[in-house]
Amino acid sequence: MIESLPARVNADAALVRRGRFVQTTFLLAVGPQDWLVTVDGGRIVGVLKGPFVMPRWTFALRAPAEAWERFWAAQPPPGFHDVFALIKRRLLTAEGDLHPFMSNLFYFKGVLASLREGGRP
Amino acid sequence: MSPRFEPVVGRYLHIDLNGQPHRLYVEQAGEGIPLLCLHTAGADTRQYRAVMNDPEILRSFQVTAFDLPWHGKSSPPAGWHELEEYRLTAQAYVDTIVAVADALGLHRPVAMGCSIGGRIVLHLALEHPEKFRAVVGLQAGAHVDPYYDTQWLHRPDVHGGEVCAGVVSGLIGPAASDADRWETLWHYMQSGPGVFKGDLHFYKVDGDIRGRLAEIDARRCAVYLLTGEYDYSCTPEDTLEAAARIPGARATIMKGLGHFPMSESPADFLTHLRPVLSEIQASR
Predict the structure, then answer these.
(1) Which of A32, B185, B193, B271 has the greatest number of beta carbons closer than 10 A?
(2) Who among A81, A84, A104 is closest to B167 (CB)?
(3) Chain B: residue nearest A71 by CA?
């Protein structure tokens, strides 16, 4: 599913525009599975599946697979419906240089929510 | 064709708070039992636009809402630029609400507040039960554990409006329409630098009322708590726990709603609020 990120995000003109100043690579950990996602001007230009030997990223978002599964449900239950809800429940950790993440919160929330069931392919 | 005005009238009130002159923005509508509405952190009175336009409520209640100093159309006091930072304390918050209610001549109003406003009405019920006939706490809990670094909310290299709205966007429930969701977020986008963060000082640090809930006497000042089920800041569990510790308090969990019920889903919210106001009216 994570492989579909470029198709889902890049087809959403409003989301790409929201991220037009974003230039970064972040790590997305779904349980033990790591992914490196590269963003260039709001477009997702790279998705690499781990494991990695020497990964290089600006910030990392890590949560158990079950937490992401509920987050990505078409209608996520209360407490699993937002990245910050997962943080509040101590299920998601955000680490590294969070500046790109926090200064483009709407963009990254949109990128992650694009993976919801029923979202763009 | 005559202009289509709402029944809401906005005026500026001059008042001394903490020994300093202030110019506060106040909105009023309706006639009857005074109902004083308190906005959330980093927002303003526009959140109560639906309550202030509900014909049924306006027939029996005189609804008042004001922008706290630093918020909305209420400026900070002169000299604000020399302060290291703005920080809301429980004492200043209580004093401001009581001073405004007195200045406006509101006789034993119902105080209704959301989030920080939901917390402060518990302080009002505790400290000033003689001044308020009832309190309605929306998204009210006794305490919130910090769960993110609030430094991000106020630094020149991160857009304050974008980050404040981005942080709270998930607190809105799925029942909200796009129009109401994004208007609610717009209020957050317009907050002055550091104001949301300064309000959270009250919410997460200074306003902790966990140890004193049992001292609130809901027979002297009735306590109603209404919380949206999608709120992860003040969760339904937080509200139910607070209600269980305040003898006589009543709690309702609102399906599909989040942290800003009056603003994110006004019609749904009013279905929960009207019965509470009817009960208050019947017990006058």
Answers:
(1) B185
(2) A84
(3) B170
Digit-coded pLDDT (tens) for A26-84: 999 999 999 999 999 999 999 999 999 999 999 999 999 999 999 999 999 999 999 99
Q: Is B5 in the A-facing interface, judged by CB distances under 8 Å?
A: no
Cβ contact (<8 Å) for A78 and B163?
A: no
Rounded to whole angstroms, how far apart are CA atoms A34 and A55?
Answer: 10
Which of A26, A113, A21 shows the shortest CA–CA distance to B158?
A21
Q: Is B21 exposed, middle or buried (0-12, 13-18, 19+ CB in 10 A)?
A: exposed
Q: In angstroms, what separates the C-alpha of B217 from chain A's closest C-alpha? A: 32
Contact between chains at A85 and B157 (C-beta distance less than 8 A) = no
DSSP B186: H
The distance of B281 to chain A (nearest Cα, Å) reads 33
ipTM of the complex: 0.94
For B194-216, write each residue's pLDDT tens digit. Answer: 999 999 999 999 999 999 999 99
Query: What is the Cα–Cα distance from A92 to B156, expressed in whole angstroms?
Result: 27
B274 φ, ψ (degrees, to nearest 5): -55, -45
The predicted model scores a pTM of 0.96
A83 in contact with B at a CB cutoff of 8 Å? yes
Torsion of the alpha carbons at B52, B57, B60 and B66, rounded to the nearest 10: -30
Instruction: Name residue A33's amino acid.
Output: Q
Q: How far is A53 from chain B (nearest CA, A)?
A: 30
Question: Which of B 85-144 lie inside 8 A of A, CB atoms?
Answer: none
Q: Do B139 and B261 touch, CB atoms closer than 8 A?
A: yes
CB B164 within 8 A of CB A105: no
C-alpha to C-alpha distance for B56 and B216, rounded to whole angstroms: 30
DSSP symbols for B8-50: -EEEEEEEEETTEEEEEEEEEE--SEEEEEE--TT--GGGGTT
DSSP chain A: -GGGHHHHHHT-HHHHHHTTT-EEEEEEEETTEEEEEEEETTEEEEEEES--SS---SEEEEE-HHHHHHHTSSSPPTTSSSHHHHHHTT--EEEE--HHHHHTHHHHHHHHHTTSTTS--
